[in-house]
Amino acid sequence: MIACVAPSDYDETLSTLRYADQAKKIRTRAIRNEDLVSAAERDAQIVAMAEEIRALQYSVSENRRKEKEGKDQEEKLEEYQNRVVVMQRMMEERSLVAEGKIRSLQTENEALRNHLKLALEELKAPINLQRNSTRNSYRGGSVTRDLSEEEPPLVYDDEGPPTPTAESDIDDHTEVPDSEYPSDEAVDLARQAYTDETEECLKSLLNDLGLHRKKIMSDKLRFYGDEVAH
Fold it and tell me: Where along the sequence do coiled-coil regions lie (predicted)?
């Protein structure tokens, strides 16, 4: 320390000298400031802390992303539930419509089966009755007579056999000779024509029945899907 000695300020000079004298008596004990951890260990700690910071940042970002995905999934789940409810209603409506349509088709199919059964029974019936009815149609008057009708009174003459009183009775019951009956060939032709016509009718009924079956199966596949196939 440099003390300033000047005659202009004597007191200040003395105070300065006293301070300088005291300062000379001060003893400083310096302590070396050293780290207890080596540089390598300190660098390793810094690296570990940096890794921990990155891990925490990644964890925070993952939590935010998962939270956002959770909200999106909840929204999608709610949307799917609404769509499922709508589809269930549509399936119920379609099922009701399909059941009604299937019942109507089954009723129509049953009617066609009954009609086909009657046609088959008619085809299997003996056709000899047609020949008899054809012959009887060529006879004069009616073949069968009502037993309740009374016979006309007869007039007995001395010179001949009894004769009916009305000429119309003779005309009504006149028998036709066998030569005027239709031949067997004509009867066979009529029977063959009737058989062909019946077969055509049966074929058309079978075709209609097949079409209705296909229609029923297509409706079942349409409304019930793979359940019908299995």
Answer: 63-122
CA gap 163, 141 in Å, rounded = 19
How far is it, in rounded angstroms, from Cα 150 to Cα 156? 18
Amino acid letter, residue 211: L
Q: How far apart are CA 24 and CA 145, in angstroms?
A: 176
Cα separation, 118 vs 112, whole angstroms: 10
Q: What is the pTM of this model?
A: 0.29
Give me the residue label for tokens 């301070």. Answer: 19
Query: How far apart are alpha carbons 108 and 112 in whole angstroms?
Result: 6
C-alpha to C-alpha distance for 48 and 8, rounded to whole angstroms? 68
Q: What is the pLDDT of residues 75-125, one digit of tens each?
A: 888 998 999 999 989 888 888 888 888 888 888 888 888 888 887 777 766
